[in-house]
Amino acid sequence: MGELASQKHVQFIVSVEKKKDSFESVVMEHIRMNGAYWGLTALDLLGKLHVVDVEEVVSWVLQCQDDSGGFGGNIGHDPHVLYTLSAVQVLALFDKLDVLDIEKVASYVAGLQNEDGSFSGDMWGEIDTRFSYIAISCLSLLHRLDKINVEKAVNYILSCKNHDGGFGCTPGAESHAGQIFCCVGALAITGSLHHIDKDLLGWWLCERQDNKTGGLNGRPEKLPDVCYSWWALSSLIMIDRVHWINKDKLIKFILDCQDIENGGISDRPDDAVDVYHTYFGVAGLSLLEYPGLKAIDPAYALPVDVVDRIILDR
Question: Is residue 152 pLDDT above 70, yes or no?
């Protein structure tokens, strides 16, 4: 089994931020806030967050805030709950949540809850269980879960549960590992995991492991992808069924997706690397207790020490 090329990955993540005129940077311009969360959290898990200029990052994050209290994916972009959570997570990494008008941010997020308990992503009204998780995680980090109807939020998530034990983006939608993380994560944060049939869901999730490569996929008959080393694995950990997969084979799959010369991790071996898969590869290895990495919280998708610091603040 190979080794994690940690220093190369640090160099890759830092270089992405500096190449603002590159194709990758231009096409990611509208989701730069998410990219900042992926890259900075990966650096923290690798123990290298100190290479970043904290004040520069915090200043940029605040410039992405809209008058509504929500955050856009970049300066001048419309606010969305997706980018709002990433902004809160980035500030949490640096212990800088105190720079926020927390009531304003929390009111923006809480205002997106619908009568049935679901959440819209922004003012245009798209509904998805991703947004339920994002709202719950964000408000929990801000200590403002009391601003929403948690019971209705939980009931809506449970209405998206399928007969196979998984969850979809809306009631009746196909089970998907990414949506399962969102639903299980939201239920974990709200203390509602007892509503899940853990054996049924655990079986569906462990079947996502490809026997040949050891990688995990998001749905039946799909190719394995490094990002599911987070989405599926974190859910298995939260429902205490991670022992149902072959951890060593999954570690090997993630390590095989590295560019050991230039840094970065790809979706599958020999594909182009990117910050998204680099983060989820490192995060997956952290969940698998790979040596030298900080521990990550499977529900909040932040380093355990960051979550503990925020929780102990309560």
Answer: yes
Q: What is the mean pLDDT of the chain?
A: 95
Contact 203, 212 (CB under 8 A): no
CA 231/CA 229 separation, integer angstroms: 6
The span from the CA of 217 to the CA of 206, in Å, is 10
Model confidence over 216-255: pLDDT tens digits? 999 999 999 999 999 999 999 999 999 999 999 999 999 9
What is the number of domains present in the chain?
1
C-alpha separations of 162 from 159, 183, 248, 305 in Å: 8, 12, 30, 34
Q: Does 268 map to a domain?
A: yes
Cα distances (angstroms) measured from residue 174 to each of 161, 165, 197, 270, 295: 9, 11, 17, 30, 31
Give the CATH number for residue 82: 1.50.10.20
Interatomic CA distance for residues 175 and 187, integer angstroms: 16
Angle between helices 228-238 and 198-206 (to 10 degrees): 150
139 lies in which domain range?
A: 6-312
Q: Is 158 part of any domain?
A: yes
Q: Has residue 207 been placed in a domain?
A: yes
Task: Write down how long the chain is.
Answer: 314
Task: Answer whether residue 203 shows pLDDT above 90.
Answer: yes
**What's residue 312's pLDDT?**
74
The answer to whether position 175 is within a domain reads: yes
DSSP category for residue 100: S
Distance (Å, whole) CA 101 – CA 87? 13
Q: Supply the pLDDT for residue 18.
A: 73
Q: How many CB atoms lie within 10 A of CB 291?
A: 7
